[in-house]
């Protein structure tokens, strides 16, 4: 058993769970951490599979809400409209992600310099949007307009560039369209469910032949770490955002991007 490899997997799993649902780009953190740790993941199979831990984390925390939505779906027009909105928001990522999958994985995911630059730029965008007085019109994610759901879905596609952040793109778009901070963050949770499940299933289909028995223990450790850390974040994020806004995440993005850029320029 490769103990150093397991420790790397533990660190990367914690990073996945802690960053997946906050607007700092979990992909960027995973790729940069893996780059500097020298962690070898053929076809990015490890990064793909530990996402399941984060997926199960949000499904676990939101199980009661999801059960209520399923129960109300046949009789409540507002619930049906919300589910339609989630599907509309998911559709652009499903189409564009499948079409551009090879380019994203083989080119964008292999560009640490690009990742650092996008972390910094995205941090400034998030900081500006957080500080502007936008006068929100929506205070519940279930009340967004259908056009707003679709617009958020297109904005989410920007996160196919690592460093942008899926949750960050959807949160910024929702706030610009008139949502308050809490409901913007909560909708990013709901949109994460089909988006992450779809991405996981497609990536698994593409990389299943690169999963080896030697890497199985790494995947198990990373999966469990991502699940535990993900549950912690999902349970606390909405209250944190309501009280502190998104500025702390913006500063963190800028810091990580700047440190990563300096390290790349210094050490390669």
Automatic annotation (TrEMBL):
One of its GO terms (molecular function) is undecaprenyl-diphosphatase activity. It catalyses: di-trans,octa-cis-undecaprenyl diphosphate + H2O = di-trans,octa-cis-undecaprenyl phosphate + phosphate + H(+). GO terms for biological process: cell wall organization; peptidoglycan biosynthetic process; regulation of cell shape; response to antibiotic. It is a multi-pass membrane protein. GO terms for cellular component: plasma membrane. The keyword ATP-binding does not apply. Its main location: membrane. InterPro entries: UppP (IPR003824). HAMAP family: Undec_diphosphatase. Belongs to the UppP family. Bacitracin is thought to be involved in the inhibition of peptidoglycan synthesis by sequestering undecaprenyl diphosphate, thereby reducing the pool of lipid carrier available. This is Undecaprenyl-diphosphatase.
């Amino acid at each position: 058993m490769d103990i150093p490899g397991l420790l790397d997997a533990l660190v990367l799993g914690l990073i996945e769970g802690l960053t997946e649902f906050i607007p700092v780009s979990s992909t960027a953190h995973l790729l940069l951490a893996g780059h500097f740790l020298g962690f070898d993941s053929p076809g990015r199979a490890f990064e793909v599979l530990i996402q399941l831990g984060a997926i199960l984390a949000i499904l676990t925390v939101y199980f009661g809400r999801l059960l209520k939505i399923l129960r109300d779906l046949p009789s409540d027009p507002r619930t049906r409209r919300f589910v339609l909105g989630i599907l509309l928001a998911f559709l652009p990522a499903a189409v564009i992600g499948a079409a551009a999958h090879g380019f994203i994985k083989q080119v964008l995911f292999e560009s640490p310099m690009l990742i650092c630059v996008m972390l910094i730029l995205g941090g400034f965008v998030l900081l500006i949007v957080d500080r502007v007085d936008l006068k929100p019109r929506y205070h519940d994610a279930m009340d967004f307009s259908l056009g707003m759901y679709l617009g958020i879905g297109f904005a989410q596609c920007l996160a196919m560039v690592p460093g942008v952040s899926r949750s960050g793109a959807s949160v910024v778009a929702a706030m610009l369209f008139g949502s308050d901070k809490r409901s913007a963050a909560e909708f990013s949770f709901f949109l994460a469910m089909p988006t992450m499940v779809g991405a996981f299933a497609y990536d698994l289909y593409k990389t299943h032949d690169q999963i080896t028995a030697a890497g199985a223990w790494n995947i198990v450790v990373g999966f469990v770490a991502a699940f535990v850390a993900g549950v912690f974040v999902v349970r606390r994020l909405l209250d944190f955002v309501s009280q502190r806004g998104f500025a702390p995440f913006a500063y963190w993005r800028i810091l990580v991007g700047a440190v990563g850029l300096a390290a790349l320029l210094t050490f390669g």
